[in-house]
Amino acid sequence: MKKILVTTALLSSYLLANSEISTYYTYKDYDNSKTKTEGKTLDYRFLHNFQNSELTINYEDSLTKRENELTKIKMTSLEIEKLSMKYLYHISNDLSIKTSFINIEDNLAPTDNGKVYGFGFNKNIDNSNQIKLDTYLSDYEDFNVNQYDFTFIKKFRFENINFQAQTGIKYIDINGEKYQNYILEDNYYMSYFLNLNANYNGFILGLGVINGDRLFSVQEDGLKVEHHALEQNKTYLVSLGKKFQNIDVITKYIYSNSKELPENRDDVSSKFFTFGLNYNF
């Protein structure tokens, strides 16, 4: 059903102006994980602007290979499909509201069939400063998660370079104690993030860092979620892109340090390499 919805959305976007179609390929490499070795994720996304609204739909298809740490015998791969949607409505030039939704299908995790609901607003203080407040409810079978994000955005210019800086906090409150047979010991998490993007003649450089523990966190403005019991700590991001007339090319590298809670495995590192294309029309 989700594939039909995404295919219909992609085909429909060809008939609509003010749209954007994107595809992203991500290679994932894991070090010191109990069972994960490597994997890949494909994202298909389209965005359409109409009147005072903006609609984004993303379909994610992910495969992660697993093996026994001692015997190296192959284990059942982790297969994930997610469909996410985000709707943004501009009430005025200075104020907008947002709703979002994610549906999760996972062949192994107890968070299979989970749903994530989001709501938020953006407020322009002036031409250079903006604040965002977002809240998310992740509804899983044995527990649910409340997340609150506060973001401050600053735009400025230096010489011929346009900059956008973002900083803020994520607060996570977990209601429940069990992740399958594992008992969740901590229910409250807080992390801090800082991002800086620079645009010079169509070349875009991005740097980002997230510091602080977080679990089951929602990301990318409500379009992505980490639904496994992976307690993330530090995350670093570097991106480089180029804007052409109708096509954008994006490359991204993300490094994260985490703890696999059910496996009680510390110092698990993941390296994600992403290549993406955006077509605007």
As an assembly, this protein is single chain
Number of domains: 1
Element-level helix/strand string: HEEEEEEEEEEEEEEEEEE
The counted number of beta strands is 18
Mean pLDDT: 94
The CA-CA distance between the termini, in Å, is: 27 Å
The CATH class, by name, is: Mainly Beta
Amount of beta strand:
over 45%
Protein name: DUF481 domain-containing protein
Keywords: Signal
Signal peptide: 1-17
Organism: Arcobacter ellisii
Features:
281 residues; Porin; two-stranded antiparallel ribbon; globular; DUF481 domain-containing protein; signal
Task: Please summarize what this structure is.
This protein has 281 residues and is mainly β.
